[in-house]
Automatic annotation (TrEMBL):
<feature type="binding site">
    <location>
        <position position="94"/>
    </location>
    <ligand>
        <name>Zn(2+)</name>
    </ligand>
</feature>
<keyword id="KW-0540">Nuclease</keyword>
<dbReference type="InterPro" id="IPR007175">
    <property type="entry name" value="Rpr2/Snm1/Rpp21"/>
</dbReference>
<keyword id="KW-0255">Endonuclease</keyword>
<comment type="function">
    <text>Part of ribonuclease P, a protein complex that generates mature tRNA molecules by cleaving their 5'-ends.</text>
</comment>
<keyword id="KW-0819">tRNA processing</keyword>
<feature type="binding site">
    <location>
        <position position="91"/>
    </location>
    <ligand>
        <name>Zn(2+)</name>
    </ligand>
</feature>
<keyword id="KW-0862">Zinc</keyword>
<dbReference type="GO" id="GO:0005737">
    <property type="term" value="C:cytoplasm"/>
</dbReference>
<comment type="subunit">
    <text>Consists of a catalytic RNA component and at least 4-5 protein subunits.</text>
</comment>
<dbReference type="GO" id="GO:0001682">
    <property type="term" value="P:tRNA 5'-leader removal"/>
</dbReference>
<keyword id="KW-0479">Metal-binding</keyword>
<dbReference type="GO" id="GO:0004526">
    <property type="term" value="F:ribonuclease P activity"/>
</dbReference>
<feature type="binding site">
    <location>
        <position position="64"/>
    </location>
    <ligand>
        <name>Zn(2+)</name>
    </ligand>
</feature>
<keyword id="KW-0378">Hydrolase</keyword>
<dbReference type="InterPro" id="IPR016432">
    <property type="entry name" value="RNP4"/>
</dbReference>
<dbReference type="Pfam" id="PF04032">
    <property type="entry name" value="Rpr2"/>
</dbReference>
Amino acid sequence: MARSRYIREVARERMMLLYKYSLEEARRGDLGLARRYIEIMLRIAGKAGVRPPKYIRRGYCRRCHTPLIPGLTLSVRIRGRGKGSRVVYRCLECGWTRRFMIKASGRGSRRE
């Protein structure tokens, strides 16, 4: 029990570190190395049976494993109005798209 918890902890730390390194390499312009870091991170997650945190899951392209950095490797658009509004992410390397619904921000969100 304690050993498996330790393995998951170490795996999470490694995943966060590799994700950070991949962002740094992508900003420097070495997308090949950045993709490699993401692939290693995903392999560690699979072996340890750990799900990456949400910011990491949304931070790379599912098709080409490129780290998503707005303006560099990612295009961000807001589509729709009202309840059907969504944010659209598009990878500038391979064209992969992902959509996220925008939640209403509570009671004061409706204007009358």
